[in-house]
From TrEMBL:
This is Uncharacterized protein. The keyword Transmembrane helix applies. InterPro entries: Elsinochrome_Biosynth-Asso. Keywords: Membrane, Transmembrane, Transmembrane helix. The chain crosses the membrane at residues 28-50, 94-114, 126-147, 175-200, 212-235, 255-274.
Amino acid sequence: MVIDTGRNCTFVPGTVATDAGVAGAGTLLSFIITNILALLLSAIIILLGLRKSTSAPICRKLLLSFSDQQIITGIGIQSIGLAKMGTMVPYHFFIIWLLSQLSTATNMATLLALVNDFRRDWVLRWLRQFLMLINLVLSVVSGIFVLKSTMMNLEPRLPIGCVWEVTDRGTPSNAAVSVAGTIAVIAGNGIVFLFCTWYLHIRENPRWMKTVQVIGLVILFTLGIGATVRVVLVSQAFGTPPGSVHLIGTGEKDWSFGQLLPLLLLILPLINTVEIMRGESKVTPSAVDNDVAPLMGDTELQHTGQFQPNPLWGSQTNLFKR
């Protein structure tokens, strides 16, 4: 039985059609703006936490909204890229992978800043980790395709799925930096996920954890800036795509409702913030400072500073009994 993959790896087309759905100006701007706002909000929350001056409820609510939006769109666009790998060329696939790095930076920064918010509710904690795991798996798989296409010097106009079928054309002389960078990002994503899993489930914050928050935020700023600069330079919407791709038309620069919609969705968290400021809804107070009150306790969850265990694994008393 022969399975039709829908791709032709023997014929190299002369041109490549644009794909505004994954590389359009509105799509790219929505990821970039969300990442910038999330990193700035995370920095504000962490710095205020160091000074212990305020719990920054508005910033926390905004950050959580932007992070939820980014992780869903990040998983969605990566799923589309992998589903269309039989027709999508490396140029568009690489842009999707860069956008996934922006999504990762946003989610990790949110976790650093709002870790106590997730700890006090086991549903939010495990839901966040499940979504982070999906995002990691998709990002690693996409990164492997990007790495393989670079090492084999895949013809830019062939689908990315052909990377396992065509003959190696030899690694280009300037590919060493790209290969090393891709491997570093893939390994870094795995290491960061393991750290975040531990960070999300520890019951107490050691005093050096605030230093880790600052260092982690600097690393995520670097990742976000690097991915943003790269996607701006290689995209047709804002920069110059590789000449060997031979894109037809300027569809990725053109604006339509489909490109405007992702940017309009960024307004929703702002509307929610206005409602909070006007008293229409409330924000849970910030968790009790861990230097003053521990996260553990022998009673049921009575204040926001406690760590809420998963009830499916036993009671809080059993889990924390020494």
